[in-house]
Amino acid sequence: MVEQVEYQESQIAQFYDEKSVFITGATGFMGKVLVEKLLRSTNVKKLYLLIRPKRGVQTKVRIQELMSSNIFDKLKESSPDVVSRVEAIEGDITAPNFGINADDERKLIDEVNVVFHSAATVRFDEALTKAVNLNVVAVFTIMEICKKMKNLEALVQVSTAYCNPQLKHINEEIYSVNGDPQGIIDMCKRMDESLLNSPKITKQIIGNKPNTYTFTKALGESALVLAGGSLPIVVVRPSIVVPTWREPLPGWLDNLNGITGNIAAFGKGVMRTCWVKRDKFVDLIPCDIPINLAIAVAWKTATQPSNSIPVYNCTSGSTNPLSWGQLEKTMMSAIRKYPFEGVFRYPSGGFNEYETLNKIAQFTRESVPAYLLDTAAWMVGKQPKMMRIVQKMHKAELASAFFATNDWKWSTENKEKLNMELTSADKKVFNIDMKSLNWSDFFEDYVKGTRQYVLKEDLATVNVARKHSNNMFWIQTFLKAFLFIVLARLLVYLL
């Protein structure tokens, strides 16, 4: 729990006192951080979490599984009864009315004060019809549910800073040029699914968007304008969400999405190249920043209502910019300082600015070694797996190439004005300012977090892993020297 003195001086913490909150997407990365933060830093009365049912598993067990995540360890030590403030609402965001039963719906209608809608698909290459269902239809559904709530004070929609990538400068507003969300939904209902999801037709539909993710997240925002009515809606747009900076644990994360996958692949020695423009800026935002912002904007929306839908771009570029070239250096330095266990090769290589050269390097430095290793595994009766890993890695790299070779600027005036309004206690407890973040220190925590929380490698094994990594370095150096001598002698012989 937040310290008593800070609580007494925190307008935001006091706002949540005895409030009931409904959260979708609570089992996701950002959702877990949101749940932990509300439980730790406020006296929220009840958190209702939409949990998708699993066959043969009771919903209460799903809550226990969620709360068993190591992000909640510190909280449970200080407040053992914290689970009593969490209740599951069985449902599925793809179902009408989220599939919520009558009794649970009555609880939400009668009790909920604040709603956080963060459930979505974040896959760049998601099938169009599925992305529409998860990122657009679900927005209409959450609004219909909210319109029934008797005591609703704020509905926070978690969007993305990249929902308007056709623009180079993105303001804090919902753009009206992203299409008709209801029309797209109707089309998905009428037309053949396989046809809509074909690459050619999907490309025609999404137009100037690079993928179905950005397209449907933009439509989700348009849906708010179309059907929001008088609901107290506010939009938070985080950029590329990366591990937590300070709380509750530095470097905490639970997946290999995005740049985390690159860190793991480079760290394990599998990845040797990646198509990136080093002079472009990558906009990373530690997860605790947008979570604190979401909690804060709910308070502001409830206490200072607006006639329009406020939008908060949650980005780092305007206050703490980081280029892809800087990221490359800090990432590789941290990887070598805190090496992973059992690396395939010594971590080396880096970014490549030319697409064709990158493809050549992918084949010679990633695919060929993987094929040779799989062949050796097959010959000794083991299951080949490296080519499958490399192919999956290349697919992910292709899906994210658009974001690694372009950059954008975002207006952040609303976020900056909000920060100025906060009391000193709120700035401490619900920090939304990352000017003081040191990227080198952050990436060390990022690598350690990837190692510890995702790859499940104990930090106590770092020294052993470093010794193995160094051995791989000398083996590679010897092999390169040997190959050079062989080729030189062959050349002399031929000449």
DSSP strand count: 13
As a percent range, the share of strand residues is: 5-15%
| Gyration radius, rounded | 24 Å
Low-confidence region ranges: none
On the 0-100 scale, what is the average pLDDT? 94
Kindly report how far apart the N and C termini lie: 77 Å
Residues in helices, as a percent range: 40-55%
What structural category do the secondary elements indicate? alpha/beta
Q: Can you describe this structure?
A:
The chain has 495 residues and is an alpha/beta fold. Helix content is 52%, strand content 10%. It is built from 20 helices and 13 strands. The chain has helices at 4-9, 11-15, 29-41, 59-67, 73-78, 102-111, 128-148, 181-190, 193-196, 199-206, 212-227, 259-267, 288-303, 324-337, 355-379, 386-404, 413-421, 424-429, 439-454, 462-494; strands spanning 20-24, 46-51, 86-90, 114-117, 154-158, 169-170, 233-238, 240-242, 273-275, 284-286, 311-314, 350-352, 409-410. A seven-stranded parallel β-sheet has the order 3-2-1-4-5-7-11, with helices on both faces. Strands 6-13 form a two-stranded parallel sheet. Helix 7 packs across helix 8 (181-190) and helix 7 packs parallel to helix 11 (212-227). It is globular, with a radius of gyration of 24 Å.
Task: Please tag this protein with its features.
two-stranded parallel sheet, 495 residues, seven-stranded parallel sheet, alpha/beta
Topology readout:
Blueprint: H1 4-9, H2 11-15, E1 20-24, H3 29-41, E2 46-51, H4 59-67, H5 73-78, E3 86-90, H6 102-111, E4 114-117, H7 128-148, E5 154-158, E6 169-170, H8 181-190, H9 193-196, H10 199-206, H11 212-227, E7 233-238, E8 240-242, H12 259-267, E9 273-275, E10 284-286, H13 288-303, E11 311-314, H14 324-337, E12 350-352, H15 355-379, H16 386-404, E13 409-410, H17 413-421, H18 424-429, H19 439-454, H20 462-494
Parallel strand pairs: 1-2, 1-4, 2-3, 4-5, 5-7, 6-13, 7-11, 8-10, 9-12
Helix pairs in contact: 3-13, 7-8, 7-11, 14-19, 15-16
